[in-house]
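fyi for ur records
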Amino acid sequence: MLGRVTMSVLFARYATPLAVLLGLGVAAFALAEQMSADRRAAHERAVIARSDELTARAMAPGSALACLDAAAGDTTETACEAAVFGSPQATAAAVAYIGARMALLADGRDMPALAPRLAATRRAIELDRFGIAAQVMSQRDGCSAAQCTGFALVTDSSMLRSNLKARTFDQYVSRHAVHWNAAPAAADKPVASAQPPVQVVPVLPTPAVAASEPRPVSSKYDFPSAASIPPVSIMNAEPALSKEAADARQAVAAQGAALGDRAPPAPPQPERTPVPPRRPQAANEPADIAPVR
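which gave:
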């Protein structure tokens, strides 16, 4: 009887702390599991965001990165070769893109929920159309055709091993590097700029000044007055020539008939004193006729 009482007392004393400790342990375990699940969910969301970002880069207008996803077929990818290796910048962008895809595949390897999303990336790495994935493994991870940790990312690593051994990427670069060096040389040549034709602006004649508008005359001209000019009548007959002038005219006519059509040289004309310009006449003013001196 005494033993039963003793056991009851001991159980009552230690049962409550044990239950408390057990409850705390269960709560801590549940909290740790919840935190681990939250971390996995956050990591999964980060991988999805990176995948979407890479897809957006590949689908951007004018981007050749979509040729590296092994979804367009061999014919299209062959045509994409010129775009992928068209310039050093395009080739470097392609290497960076495949490197980001391989890192994404490694981060999502332990996430079964992301397997369908990463299937296309895994397939593109396995095919390694231009040897870019093998180049990333060789330069970043120090891989060789015999051994590489990156082979675990894919199901079939035969193409990757072949590209590592043959250095396929270097062959593509050597083929297109000739055009890379030729393009800057052509760009450095000075190009004669076409000079635009000179436009000739037509000069429009200024409108004539109205006759009634007075124009100033320079003071260096001296005009004779109307009183100093003798009157001339155009109604009188021309005065008869003198005998000497009539004989000279007949002699000239006879000489012209003897020479035929060839006319004699005209006698030199005496120099005339230049006459200053005439004074402008008003609309109703009669014109003055001045003899030429």
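Helices lie at 2-58, 74-84, 88-107, 115-127, 132-140, 158-166, 168-188, 243-259. thats all i got for now
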